[in-house]
Amino acid sequence: MTSSTTVRSPHRLYGRGGELAIIQGLLTRLRQGDGGALVLAAPPGLGRTALLREAASAHRSRGPVLYGTASAAGTAAATASADSAGLPDPVGPAAYTGPAARAASAGRAGSADRGGRATHAAPADRAGPVPAPEPFTPEPLTPEELLARLRDGSTGRPLLVCADDAHAWDPACRTALAAAARRLGPGSGVGILIAADDGPAFAELPTRRLGPLDEDASAALLDRLAGAGAGATTDPLDPVVRAELLREGAGNPRLLTALLGHLTPGRLTGRTPLPSPLPGAEGVLEAYAYRLDALPAPARALLLLAAAAQEHEPAGAGTDALLLLRAGTRAGLPRDFLDDALFGPAATEGLLQRAGSRVHFSPPLAARAVLHHTPPARRRAAHELLAALLGEAGGRAGTLAALAQRACAAPGPDHALAARLEAAATAPYSHAERSSALARAAVLTPDPPLRSARFAAAAEQAAHAGDPDRARALLARTAAPAETGSGLAPTTGGPGLAPYVHGLLALRSGPAVDAHEALLAAAALLGPHDPGRALHALLGAADAAWVRGDAGGYLEAMGRVDPTPYGDVFASYRAGMCAVLAGRTAEGHALLRRCLDPDGSAEGHPVLRRCPDPAGLLRAGVAALVLGEVAAACRIGARALGAVRTRGPEVLLPQALEYLAYAELRAGLHAAARAHALEGLHAARRTGQPNSSARLHAVLALAASVEGPAEACAAHCDAALAGAVPHGLAQPATLATWARGRADLAVGRPEEAAARLGPLVRPGPRQGHFAVRTLAVPCYVEAVVLGGRGGELSSVVDEFAAWADRTADPQAPAQLARCRALTAPADEADARYAEALAHHDRAGGDFERARTLLLYGQWLRRRRRTREARTPLRDALVAFQRCSARAWAERAGGELRAAGEPVAGAVRDTGGGGVLSALTPQQQRIARCVAEGATNREVALRLSLSPRTVDHHLRNVFAALSVRSRTELARLLGPQTSPMPRTPRTPLSPQSPQGP
């Protein structure tokens, strides 16, 4: 590389922070005069050379660097050095430029060095400067030259020795290098970094093994390569293409770079379908397979059988050790060799590792390398042998696996085998297994319409398995709907299946309006020949409308459902939900009660026997929540969760946990709701359902608005809104806003709470979700009254009263009585609070009862009935503590102290929590000064503020802490240890922040 083609640009290594820190520690000790050695062990392409170059660049200003690399003299060394193929060499001429390197670099649009550091090579059809890593001065040395330099002695300065591809050195050089590294220690002034394959050559030295990049690092590297490298397009990388590249790249930077470099701009942006398999992996797989030729024939045969046996297993599952033992025996491998290979890794040099009854490749890419390195005839023979063994085993497990192995052995399209695979991919198998079988059937299908339909069916099963990226990749291989024919096999679903899967994916991870329209269109296409999928499409469209807050869209979708074939329970559910949303509440509730208990028994819940499928149980849980039967919703939700765990599909797990958590919130079981929602959030992330994540963040925000801390509530609210707003999810947006308002009330900020909740509960374009907004009314009433704006409440209280008359929610009567107490004249409020507490005693639930007690105590204290106020405030504090409502307990404790009763364990003067945690730092300083007895002018002088600013902040302090005077503030904060000196001034009135 000449100076005219070199551009200095910043680079970075992705996902190697731990390794860089270890190397930095070695270099630091080296600069202090001490020595040491470190082996960076990794398969090809994971970045061992990049780390050596990074270390050499970092050390070159402090001392000399010797950089040794494998020569091109031997086949092993040359093949191993293909790790650097096609990359600009920062230290001199490339160590190897043979056929593997040329194949790896041909047509490459961008590259990365072996640690994932982005470099940018100009493509064949494009000229331009090529950025390169910052070069350093030492030329690459052969192993013999490097060892000779080491024997010459020290240079008097800290010496760094970098030995690249040391596993490919001749044995004598490896032995000498290892011996030199073992002798290093304190005072030697020499550090040795060795990059080698993960083999036994340097087992006695300190070793850092490099694993594949994690998902975040791989994504960052891919985005860098696609967006900043040569060959970058003006259009963004298509999400489906991006996910497929990350899947196929397997966390290997060089493989990821090679795959990206072989895709045209049209394929990168999704305008042209991706080829299958993706091109570009050949060079990396050959580099992985270089060790195979040196192995004995039995070891190579066993590795081929193990790699072939993984083809019918889920990704990452390895293969069955017993099957591999039988296959090896059938292939004529000696039994003693098989025992050694399967129970100890020596026979295969560690490429196979056993974990229980499973055998895995280490590294996983080695399995692909074995299949790539083996001639096609031998691969087909291995698959046919495995198919025969699996067929002999019989049973459910063996049938589909045997057909999958026969599909791998097929030399080309095979209509009969494809039909057998499709027929076998039925319900007893997991969704992932069925997806794999249908995809193989599609590959074997010569007829384009049928092939597209089978790819769509495979995508549907991948979506049910919780693998949306795989589902989208399979959908990308389907033809347009007009090209697919009708009259297809039941498994494939006909021309409406691809739109149906698109709608399902949008329902879980896209805009709700898109999901609604796609699923309605899919139902129209599916209806004539696949009524089962058409029903699910309509129910999905109704779900999308519900989460949007679109009652009309919900009624439209449910109105197109014919419930006749699905039994009385489903018919009652459909009719009841439609009646409720149409305003016929009494009729709807009567129908929905049949879903819970058609025989009239309050305890039986025969729906749990009549609808044993998870989806039916989830619908029953929804019915219970709409009715306000909170206890029934919790019981049904627990049964639904158990059914999903037992029967699947896994993609329903986040939804089951969400419904159960929401029922537990309504029941006041906030800790249980938080635990289930956290599990649901993890499941939603694992199965690629960001819309479920948004809803679960909203549930977690509601739990945190009770339990605290405020930071957790705010974080979950922000996460919920970040997912809900772009996708039009009104339900989680309303829940999150309600949670934020309730958290404001907990810390004594009623004005902010009223501002948040007002648009949700009042009529207008920003009104909240129709199924949630009424539940936020008690919080809104409390916020408005405490904020001093009581005239805005008559309409919303009347609406809440109408809802309380209809619902079976046990807390509704108590909450209504509390709202009446807050808005009642002084001579009626006592009776209203007593009524509310009587309802609470019947309904149970610590949190809502404690809120009523707190408001009642506040009301009594503000009317100077201090002694009477202490009892409800004390009871409120204990109840809040019992249900772990920490912020609410702080508020109750402050009120109780203001009523003249000390609170054990209260934090009196806090800079970061306790009584003052609701205040800003400026407000805390002002409050402490005022509690010490300072006037507003004295506070202003001390804090370098204007008296008007102090007055403004002090009014907010009074509102946040629910105190009315400076005396109450001083009592609330307690005695100060260092009172502020007072200057003689006319005292201000203690009843107002500013005074007369």
TrEMBL record:
SMART domains: HTH_LUXR. InterPro entries: AAA_16 (IPR041664), P-loop_NTPase (IPR027417), Sig_transdc_resp-reg_C-effctor (IPR016032), Tscrpt_reg_LuxR_C (IPR000792), WalR-like (IPR039420), WH-like_DNA-bd_sf (IPR036388). The keyword DNA-binding applies. Residues 912-977 form the HTH luxR-type domain. Signal peptide: none annotated. It comes from the Bacteria. Residues 975-996 have a biased composition (Polar residues). Residues 130-140 have a biased composition (Pro residues). Keywords: DNA-binding. Pfam families: AAA_16 (PF13191), GerE (PF00196). Residues 105-140, 972-996 are annotated as: Disordered. This is LuxR C-terminal-related transcriptional regulator. It comes from Streptomyces cavourensis.
